[in-house]
Amino acid sequence: MAELPLPAGLCASTFPAKLWRLVNSPRVRSVRWDSRAQGLLIDRSLFERELLSPGDAQGPAPRPFRATRFRSFVRQLHRYGFRRVPGRAGSAAPGDAGAWLHYSNPCFRRDRPDLLLRVRRWSTQIDNLLSLLESQKVLCLVFLCASCDV
């Protein structure tokens, strides 16, 4: 299968773009699409050897992520809205020996590369929401104080 291109407007150095290239690369064996092409299956031990090992010249991609620990990679998945699919770990295909971890994000689907533009880092969104709530709280306090003639 040929590698699918990134949608126009998506910076190639972002986490979602790197993940898209990996899951669609025929050279990467540790990350693949689930059977519905709406989630990721990750073989942890192979992923660590193939993509996180420092200085590993045998891997298909030269350290695509800054993370060197699987836990840090999973933290990145969570920051970008990926969630673990419960009860879906196991073999990815008949004959596979390893356990595969299953992660999903509604905007990360093989048939809809255009949705990649909606995969955003959640910390920025949460910070914006908290700022908005703080400003509204201040407005509410000002309103309450004005209505009480304080």
Outline:
The chain is an alpha+beta fold. The chain is built from four helices and four strands.
What does this structure look like?
Helix content is 36%, strand content 9%. The protein has helices at 15-23, 44-52, 70-79, 122-147, and strands at 31-33, 39-42, 83-84, 101-104. The longest helix has 26 residues, at 122-147. The protein has 4 helices and 4 strands; from the N terminus they run αββααββα. It has 2 domains: 15-119, Winged helix-like DNA-binding domain superfamily/Winged helix DNA-binding domain (Arc Repressor Mutant, subunit A); 122-150. The protein is globular. Strands 1-2-4-3 form a 4-stranded antiparallel sheet. With 150 residues, it is of the alpha+beta class.
Could you give the topology of this structure?
Elements: H1 15-23, E1 31-33, E2 39-42, H2 44-52, H3 70-79, E3 83-84, E4 101-104, H4 122-147
Antiparallel strand pairs: 1-2, 2-4, 3-4
Protein name: HSF-type DNA-binding domain-containing protein
GO cellular component, one term: nucleus
Family: Belongs to the HSF family.
Features:
single chain, 150 residues, alpha+beta, Arc Repressor Mutant, subunit A, 2 domains, 4-stranded antiparallel β-sheet, 4 strands
Low-pLDDT residue spans: 139-150
Report the biggest beta sheet as strand number plus sense, adding barrel if it closes. 4 strands, antiparallel
Structural class, by secondary structure, is alpha+beta
Please compute the radius of gyration using only Cα atoms: 20 Å
Number of helices: 4
What is the annotated CATH architecture of the largest domain? Answer: Orthogonal Bundle
Total strand segments: 4
CATH superfamily of the largest domain: Winged helix-like DNA-binding domain superfamily/Winged helix DNA-binding domain
Anisotropy-based shape: globular
What number is the mean pLDDT?
75
* Count of domains: 2
Strand order of the largest sheet: 1-2-4-3
Helical coverage, percent range:
25-40%
Strand content: 5-15%
CATH class of the largest domain: Mainly Alpha
C-alpha end-to-end distance: 70 Å
Order of helices and strands: HEEHHEEH
Question: What's the CATH topology name of the largest domain?
Answer: Arc Repressor Mutant, subunit A
